Every structure is written in C-alpha cells, then in structure tokens.
Amino acid sequence: MYILSFESSCDETACAVVEMSEGTREIKSNIIASQVDIHALYGGVVPEIASRAHIEAISKITYEALDVAGLKISDIDMIAVTQGPGLIGALLVAVSFAKALAFANNIPLVPVDHIKGHVAANYLTHKDLKPPFLALVMSGGHTSFFDVKSYTDFEEIASTQDDAAGECFDKIGRVMGLPYPGGSALDRLATMGNKQSIQFPSPAISKDTLNFSFSGLKTAVINYINTKRQKGEELCREDICASVTHSIVEAVVSKVDIALKKTGYDKIVLAGGVSANSHIRAGIEEVCKKSGATFYAPSLSLCGDNGAMIGAQGYYEYLNGVRGSENLNAYPS
C-alpha cells in the first residue's frame, strides 16, 4: 500500500510517501520544508507566520514527494494527515489540503494523532518492532509515558504537569543566546561541560508518580543566568548545559526504571524531537542494559516532525477502520 502523508502541526511542512504492508515498512520519499530560519528571528514559533508558510509550501512539497517516490497521485492507495495536537492554524493547512486531495481523487483519508505518529517513526527504523511496549514521547510540547497496547491503542500513564522537556531546553537555550532551536546546540555544549558544576532541581516529581515538572528547573536555570549577568560574572555555557542536561537525564532515567518495573514491559520506545538528544539516549540505553530491556529510538532523521511517521501510523489506523470524512477537523490539544 502506497500512502501519501502530511504533517503541519507546528513549524515543519512535511509530505512523504511510504510503502506499508504486513512485511514492508519503507520510506519512498520524505520531504520537509523547514521554517527554522523564519522563526529564529523571533526566538520561537509564531503561529500566524507558521500557518502562512505552510500554505506557501504544501503544494510544492507534495509534487516533490510524489516525484522522488516515482509515483503519480493515481498510484496512491491512502492519504494520511496529522489531525492534532498542535497549533490549530498550522494543522488546518494540511488537514484542508489532504481532504481536498483525497476527495478529488477518490482516495481514502485517514486522520492521525501526532503523538502516535512520533512513536510510529520507530516502526520505520526498527522493522521488527511490534506492540505492546512502553513508550516515552519527549518533544517541545509533550513529555509523557504511554502504555502502547497495540498499534492504535495507547494509554497515557504519566506526563509532565507543566512545561515539556523540549520547551525547557529551547527556552534555556534562548536565554543563553544559543541558536534557535536551542535543544541541539545545548546537547552539543553539554558534552564539553562539567555536569557536576551546578546543582539544579530535578524535574522528577516524587517517587510515588511517573510524572515530571520542568517549570521549576527552567526557572532555576534562567534565574541563575540572570543573576550571573547582573553581577557581571562570566557564564560558562558548557557547564550550564551539562548541568541542565544531567538533571533532566537523571530524572528521565529514574522514571524509565520505575516505569519498566511498574508495567512489566521489556521494551521501551523513545520518540519525539527530544529523542535526538544524545545524553538522554545514552542514559536510557544504560538503564535498559541493567534491567534487561530492549531500547528503541528512531533514526535522527525521523526524530523531528515528518510526514513518514504519519504515513506509518496512518497505515495501522486504516487497518483499524479509521476514516476521515469531508467534515474532518483539526484539534489543538
């Protein structure tokens, strides 16, 4: 089955073609029109600008995705599109475009949850991966544990109570003057610093829960930076990045260990934009070795928002009987 899939939940306009069947999980094309340079001017995503940029890009990348895959629209068996969560204006661009394309060409339309899509990126990287398993989704808007009972049945068992891990990384990076988005630069600088140099609060809430809270950590780091600047003291960005990262990794690792024991799973899947963080990957991999669990993470090219992950999840939603009508709408949360 050839699936044409769209993703526009935030600041990446993405279109992909994937081939999916019982024994096949293959990316034929995966085109992404990034808006990073636009939003870097403002230090974060401006929703109205993101929506307009999606409108300008979506038709072009659709032609490109089909061309790279060597297919025509008549060869497509199903169209998948991110329905939510995300920025409502941004989501509506791909939802409207996909609806029009599907109904004009009499192709089945399947709405996909963005979070499930991130998890599905692992199916394209690890061809043998099958549910059930424990999933940890970490991105700019989400940090949650899921009990993935089947390809389409997800139960959220814990989450952040305020800010997400990706938001924490990016806002701290912005205050330090790192290039937008700050997460990747912060990851790189963390390898050069002393992770024990500064004691920041842990985002792990008490041992009685798997939940996180990143707002306190974010505030503590920003206050530390501002205090140093007010005193005219020099900032060691490497040490700050290393210490922040260490606090987050220690919290994530402790919760992963508890979650594996609590659920009884021997597989954990990491997903979302923050899954590209090398320190978080290494920390989870280490705890998995100690507990005898298998660790899965997507290839770096599939960590961020992309159309291929939506196509992969769309396939399983299609098999489960999910269809979108001409009344399909987007949802922000």
Protein model, in words:
The chain is of the alpha/beta class and 333 residues long. The protein has two domains: 2-121 and 303-319, Nucleotidyltransferase, domain 5; 130-300, ATPase, nucleotide binding domain (Nucleotidyltransferase, domain 5, 2-Layer Sandwich), CATH 3.30.420.40. Helix content is 44%, strand content 20%. It is built from ten helices and ten strands. It has helices at residues 36-40, 47-69, 88-104, 114-125, 165-176, 182-190, 215-230, 237-263, 278-291, 307-319; strands at residues 2-7, 12-21, 24-34, 78-84, 109-113, 133-138, 143-148, 154-159, 267-271, 294-296.
List the helices and strands and how they pair.
Layout: E1 2-7, E2 12-21, E3 24-34, H1 36-40, H2 47-69, E4 78-84, H3 88-104, E5 109-113, H4 114-125, E6 133-138, E7 143-148, E8 154-159, H5 165-176, H6 182-190, H7 215-230, H8 237-263, E9 267-271, H9 278-291, E10 294-296, H10 307-319
Parallel strand pairs: 1-4, 4-5, 6-9, 9-10
Antiparallel strand pairs: 1-2, 2-3, 6-7, 7-8
Helix pairs in contact: 2-3, 4-10, 5-6, 5-7, 6-8, 8-9
Which terms would index this structure?
333 residues, alpha/beta, Nucleotidyltransferase, domain 5, 5-stranded mixed beta sheet, 44% helix
Helical content (DSSP H or I, runs of 4+): 40-55%
Provide the CATH superfamily of the largest domain. ATPase, nucleotide binding domain
**CATH-defined topology of the largest domain:** Nucleotidyltransferase, domain 5
In the CATH scheme, the class of the largest domain would be Alpha Beta
- Contiguous runs where pLDDT drops below 50 for at least 5 residues: none
Number of distinct helices: 10
Could you give a short account of the major beta sheet? 5 strands, mixed
What's the N-to-C terminus distance? 30 Å
Looking across the biggest beta sheet, what order are the strands in? 3-2-1-4-5
What is the string of helix and strand elements? Answer: EEEHHEHEHEEEHHHHEHEH
CATH structural architecture of the largest domain:
2-Layer Sandwich
- Counting helices, strands and paired strands, the structural category is alpha/beta
* Rg (C-alpha, Å): 20 Å
Give the averaged pLDDT, no decimals. 96
What is the number of E strands?
10
Inertia-based shape = globular
How many structural units, i.e. domains?
2
Characterize the quaternary organization of these chains: single chain
